[in-house]
Design goal:
222 residues, mainly alpha, Tetracycline Repressor, domain 2, 70% helix
Length: 222
């Protein structure tokens, strides 16, 4: 009888736990210090690992922070996309996406604080979350739901709205419907009439299902 060797699986699980440990530590440090201020020493001390362990996973803090932003973006899309794609109208998709991402400030404030201090999403560089928005912005312009404009301008409007809404919603004094107000203002800037923008931005969204495992869950659990 052949005995299955579980060692490769156990080793892979151990590597993934260490990777998540470094990533989640970086989120917490970034929320407090700002991602640009994080050093390798900050990470290894907070994560209680050696510098050698750090370098097994990441060549620099810049690479580590890029990985954090990428994984958070993937998990945000996994949360938001099923809800966003339930709408056919690009305006409803954009408004829903803004509201869903902004609510990270309520559901996962450490993650939101990290992203706000990172200044993300940022149209100056490649970003999968912006690609997600770009799809619906292009469709809205093509269908004449939005005013014809350069896609970079439309992305600036949306990304600035997301950052602003998330930043405000981290403050306990922020209006409870600030995400809806932001979504409506964004739609107006894209060319939707005020009454329709308000109607779209206050439409009930499906229940949010955050990923049960991964970086965001790891940050919450610590």
């Amino acid at each position: 009888m052949t005995t299955q060797d579980h060692r490769p699986r156990v080793a892979a699980e151990r590597r993934e736990r260490m990777r998540l440990r470094l990533l989640s530590t970086t989120v917490r440090l970034g929320a407090e210090l700002g991602p640009a201020a994080i050093t390798i020493d900050d990470v290894v001390v907070a994560a209680e690992v050696s510098r050698g362990s750090f370098y097994k996973y990441f060549p620099s803090t810049e690479a580590l922070i890029r990985e954090v932003a990428t994984q958070i973006a993937n998990e945000l899309i996994k949360m938001a996309e099923p809800i966003v794609l339930s709408f056919e109208d690009p305006a409803e998709r954009i408004a829903g996406g803004i509201r869903l991402v902004a609510r990270t400030a309520i559901d996962h404030p450490l993650v939101a604080a990290f992203l706000v201090r990172l200044g993300w999403p940022d149209v100056r560089g490649p970003d999968i979350l912006l690609d997600f928005a770009k799809r619906d912005l292009r469709a809205g312009i093509r269908l004449r739901r939005f005013t014809r404009m350069p896609i970079e301008l439309a992305l600036n409007i949306v990304s600035g709205s997301v950052i602003g809404a998330t930043h405000c919603m981290l403050d306990s004094g922020c209006a409870q419907d600030f995400a809806e107000q932001t979504a409506a203002a964004t739609l107006r800037a894209l060319g939707i009439e005020a009454a329709e923008a308000k109607l779209i931005s206050t439409r009930k969204l499906a229940r949010v299902e955050w990923p049960a495992s991964g970086l965001i869950a790891e940050v919450v659990d610590i």
